[in-house]
Amino acid sequence: MSYILVTGGAGYIGSHTVVELVNNGYNVVVVDNLVNSSYDVIVRIEVLTRKQIPFFKIDLNDHDALDQVFKLYPIQAVLHFAALKAVGESTKFPLNYYSNNVGGAISLLKVMEENNVKNIVFSSSATVYGDATRFENMIPIPEHCPTGPTNPYGETKITIENIIRDVYANDKSWKCAILRYFNPIGAHPSGLIGEDPLGIPNNLLPFLAQVAIGRREKLSVFGSDYNSKDGTPIRDYIHVIDLAKGHIAALNYLFNHKDNGLCREWNLGTGNGSTVFEVFNAFCEAVGKKLPFEVVGRRDGDVLNLTANPKRANTELKWKAQLSINDACKDLWNWTTKNPFGFQINNYSWTKFDSESLTNYDRLNTVRTFNGKFEVSISNHGATIVAAKLNGIKLNLGFDNLKGYLREDNPFFGATIGRVANRISKGDLLINGTHYQVGLNELHRTSLHGGTYGYNKRTFLGPIVKTNEKEKETTMEFVLIDLDGTEGYPGDVETKVIYTVRDTGVGGELGIEYEAKLLEESGRDSTAVSLTNHSYWNIGNQPSIEGTHIKLVSNKHLESNPLDSTPTGKIVTSTDLDSQNSAKLGPDGPVFDYCFVTKQQDKLDTRNDELRVVATATHPKTRIAFTTLTTEPAFQFYTGDGVDVAGVFTKRSGFCLEASRYIYNPKWFIPLNKGEVYGSYTIYRFE
Ligand code: NAD
Q1: ipTM of the shown complex
Q2: Which residues of the chain, if any, have pLDDT below 50?
Q3: Architecture of domain 348-686
Q4: Residues of 557-589 as b/e, b for ≥16 C-beta within 10 angstroms?
């Protein structure tokens, strides 16, 4: 298995190219120091492509760290995007630009050479041509147009080009593609990734997008007295998706060039120039309103027309830009409205959850409510609720790091439970007349909580984090693709777990939405899904749940078979609750481990059902009121009497309130068929 290393893969063009690479079957590893980007980009690429992307937060100038990546992954080629790119800034901080861009490229080329990796695609720029209008017959600009950058940024690009040409001149086995981009615009049509300029945008469309969303007052048009049809300058704007595809074409060209090395330049542009007003009008149309602008004086260094001649790329790379300015404007507006502040979310943070791992797959994602009172941390491992805190008081049982969650005696603390929660007798699952043997993991030959490799042990992709200030809530969306045959379950199932951390004024609440679908690709017609969260709560700020008052909405529960705790099929009444369905929990009793039922189980997606309070709990010491609301027809109430996590937690350290379906029994079970959606919604409120 070989990999393509993408430097600067968290950036604007790099991220779109990573998506194209994955879509074209390449394995990708990303290196980025995140100086002008965010790790959220990688997370979103993973969700978009449904693939984990190995990522390393490394500066290219760190030779040894970079070398380690080459030792860990068999790298076949490098797409080198990483650079600082702001023209104006480069004139102010030329040394930074030379050391970052030129120094970074030299460091990369050295590591490549030392590791015998000699295929590179380099992000150059039309800036290397400088003012091509100074020559006759050089518009549209061909690759043989003499270069002559007019700023330090452009100088770094031509310098790196020259270095690459020298490396090739010395060793003709190198294969080097130098791509000179014109003006990349637009965003991924999914609205998940796009350009997120920090500070004041330097380019026309990102600036316009901020005007449209209300972050800037108006667009300044620099001169309308040029000799064009509307007086504004002409540039060659290329959709970032087309640009990304140009990299796949260049890479394939290098790989197909079998006999010897090469070093060649290609322009990536459309060949069609557009004026500033044409782009402005196209964007206004995408937004659906006329945006404010003002014509001001010409900008130093601007010239009439810088359009590419892309024929060389068209013929040699067999690549041609396909998308229009209207497409780019539509995609940019979609991205902007979905992410008005780009990737910036103030009340979200993450840390590595597995300190021993070099990669960052296992992260701990923390969101705080706007009132600062309530905070929830979720790990990618099992989309697990690792910590929930109200005014600094921890409300649940959990470990500090991934290692704890991997312990044999971890009783599913906080984890997402699937594909089928609770027990299946003998692991015999009957779906539409077919028996499936699913993973057995208990002594009595039962399958518990999805078997030995249930959802609690999987690394979820995500989270995609979004915040809604009006609703005072922040969501973290995790995704898992559970493949056909895993633990014996049929069908590829896509499961989304969406956590919402919401301000309730006096406290906060955590919403958990589950959504699952059977994916067409697996060729199965039906499967089984039943999901819940296995948090152990303790609202007394003490080692035991003793003293907690609990009140349930129902005293009816499923009768369970004493041998293997699976349901007999009967519903019985609890004798451990008083006439109000409430109980005070003591040090040893009453003992509960029942699936209480509150209504009939009659649908696969309960999300449109009434969200009802099913349990309330209070503790006199902390006076915390804990309310569980759900759309689900049942909930497991367990007083944690079997908890024995040596040296950490003992019995009755926490209790569970797992909103769920009825425990699996063919009598009640509803299969998930092709085209259908499984869904539920539960809230844990703490005030
Ligand atoms: P970007 O800033 O969005 O992406 C560049 C990425 O490189 C960022 O994620 C940044 O964090 C990273 N990076 C910078 N220096 C690094 C270093 N020393 N080590 C590791 N990572 C580092 O920019 P972009 O628009 O995606 O541009 C990508 C490439 O294309 C750049 O080389 C740029 O010069 C070139 N280019 C861009 C344009 C444009 O208009 N966007 C036009 C022509 C060429």
Answers
A1: 1.00
A2: none
A3: Distorted Sandwich (2.70)
A4: bbebeeebbbbeeeeeebeebeeebebebeeee
